[in-house]
Amino acid sequence: MELIALVLLVQGGGGLINNLTGGSKSWFALNYVEMPDALRVAAYAVMVLLGLVLVVRRFGWDWLKG
């Protein structure tokens, strides 16, 4: 479960930053799927949110707060 959350956070966060800064086609998975740019950015944001939900479900809010 932690591995899936980590992959979602890295792929989602990195892809989101990459697309918002006008980066090149890098190793982020959704950059290789044909879709409009706005949908791609939204999908990366959803990946980040899903990763955070998995982390919170596994470790709880107290762990996230520090």
What does this structure look like?
It contains 3 helices and no strands. With 66 residues, it is mainly alpha-helical. 71% of the residues lie in helices and 0% in strands. The chain has helices spanning 2-20, 37-59, 61-65. Helix 1 (2-20) runs antiparallel to helix 2. The longest helix has 23 residues, at 37-59. The chain crosses the membrane at residues 39-56.
Layout of helices and strands, plus pairs?
Blueprint: H1 2-20, H2 37-59, H3 61-65
Helix pairs in contact: 1-2
In whole angstroms, the N-to-C terminal distance is: 20 Å
Give the oligomeric state: single chain
Report the biggest beta sheet as strand number plus sense, adding barrel if it closes: none
Outline type = elongated
Keywords: Membrane, Transmembrane, Transmembrane helix
Q: How would you describe this structure in keywords?
A:
elongated, mainly alpha, 66 residues
Structure, briefly:
With 66 residues, the chain is an all-alpha fold.
